[in-house]
Amino acid sequence: xxxxxxxxxxxxxxxxxxxxxxxxxxxxxxxxxxxxxxxxxxxxxxxxxxxxxxxxxxxxxxxxxxxxxxxxxxxxxxxxxxxxxxxxxxxxxxxxxxxxxxxxxxxxxxxxxxxxxxxxxxxxxxxxxxxxxxxxxxxxxxxxxxxxxxxxxxxxxxxxxxxxxxxxxxxxxxxxxxxxxxxxxxxxxxxxxxxxxxxxxxxxxxxxxxxxxxxxxxxxxxxxxxxxxxxxxxxxxxxxxxxxxxxxxxxxxxxxxxxxxxxxxxxxxxxxxxxxxxxxxxxxxxxxxxxxxxxxxxxxxxxxxxxxxxxxxxxxxxxxxxxxxxxxxxxxxxxxxxxxxxxxxxxxx
Length: 349
Ligand code: NAP
Ligand code: ZN
Ligand code: ZN
Description:
Belongs to the zinc-containing alcohol dehydrogenase family. The chain is α/β, with parallel strands linked by helices. The chain has 12 helices and 19 strands.
């Protein structure tokens, strides 16, 4: 079905209107009218080709909330009229060890929501900056009914990307947890770490975010550019989540971990980061990475956010403002997630 979308035609041209085709509904498929789509920094990295490997035209968007309009004959979980979410993946092989362990994001054949080979169209997948998406119900999420829909969209990537490593590393009540970077991921990290009972310290390079960080739940806020503010925190953290999207010094944060502490990198700067091995060997500290989360865990995270009334702090934009939003993301000028009101795409068509 012909579907209005917004696409980048190459790494340097602004996103602009573009028609895509959505596949006909298969037996296990759910067709969703997209109401809201969050704007993740990964959308920008991909659209602008910063990581390499982008296939153009590129329709980004993997924080999708919408209304089910039609379901395939064998669909069990959804019916027309239901609210539904789609995150960063729309399929995987379903048979490998990673898939069997509910870690589809590590499957060799994960089909990401955009910029992945699409076996249905023989092209590439197109994401949520569009009117409609068709996905297998196994990769469609149920949305808690008590949450604001627009503010829930960012949970589908920013929420799970921060929830999953904190869950995996057993963040619990009373632990000291650091969140580096107060953007889309970072602000969700603060809310989720607080709900897990942690003592949360935010590290920001933006002095104008200090008050917000406290309002979002941070117990302490550190200006990471100021060495005097960093020093009292040496050797004190159980866990640090680094969400920074650009080149920065991770050694400064590794030194803040206590013995056996872990720093998990979720931000994916296009440039390599340099590691001073000494910051790991003293204190048996560890450094790891984490990629979104599996579908089962994504549902668990949504339910957790429903229980704790957690959503994102958003700035709702029409799709026509997407290029401006990208420019503001690069300047760290986001409070704290842009979400596209997809009605704007309809009205423009
Ligand atoms: P974002 O909203 O732009 O936030 C990034 C934050 O990083 C900024 O707000 C800023 O916070 C800080 N920052 C940016 N440039 C910096 C610099 N040069 N030095 C120090 N701090 C800097 O981006 P996002 O959507 O949260 O995404 C963050 C990163 O995570 C991106 O690289 C994205 O691709 C990646 N990501 C990874 C996964 C995964 O599964 N691993 C999932 C989603 C996104 P302050 O102003 O507070 O300093
Ligand atoms: Zn994302
Ligand atoms: Zn697999």
